[in-house]
What we know:
This protein is of the alpha/beta class. It has 13 helices and eleven strands.
Amino acid sequence: xxxxxxxxxxxxxxxxxxxxxxxxxxxxxxxxxxxxxxxxxxxxxxxxxxxxxxxxxxxxxxxxxxxxxxxxxxxxxxxxxxxxxxxxxxxxxxxxxxxxxxxxxxxxxxxxxxxxxxxxxxxxxxxxxxxxxxxxxxxxxxxxxxxxxxxxxxxxxxxxxxxxxxxxxxxxxxxxxxxxxxxxxxxxxxxxxxxxxxxxxxxxxxxxxxxxxxxxxxxxxxxxxxxxxxxxxxxxxxxxxxxxxxxxxxxxxxxxxxxxxxxxxxxxxxxxxxxxxxxxxxxxxxxxxxxxxxxxxx
Length: 298
């Protein structure tokens, strides 16, 4: 049976429609709309009315695409920006009225769980999901989660704290990221020793794209490597560029050009705090994790 899931993230709203099989997911359709909820939050922590309307229409378009692809069911969940928004109820009601979908705002721990199921195998694996508003770290083995945590530190959140337009800005942002992530990495460091380290989310996939000079498809992305030294090289390069120059960098989606340096700061901070010199990148995300965690197998 074809199932669909839509996730309203801090930077984008994404859709995955697929059939679950004994070998994973098949007959896959992916969709994406740039909605940028986190950066739209005003000084009172509220989403502007126009941004709510825009997001409602994005969900409607993705839902219609999933139905056209044959989805028999569709779930909708939202993550960090919606957790932060004081008027998230307006978004919930707007989507329900336009599409009939009931939006669930999931916890950071649930977000971490879905990230793990997206790409973890049987070996001990630490999965990092750098989002716009939060970063999830999940350790597991043999399909079982040993630890799941969500830190209030994402690329867009860090950018609001410290924009990056020079090397000095970058160093300040790395220190801010380390201060936010250290309580979580300290709790994980001993248990994560020897684990396979996997990164998902836009920062990690874009870092792999820049390293290889081109953007990858989801399938091509699987297993691409990003070293700590390469992440530092990219941060140094992007920190000294204008926005227009960043948008021309091979492998970097233009939509990520503004906050990519901040995402790299989080990536570097976590790798240094945990002592990893490289990570393996996956193009999968929490939508894959949700569909793969369904009990039904067809």
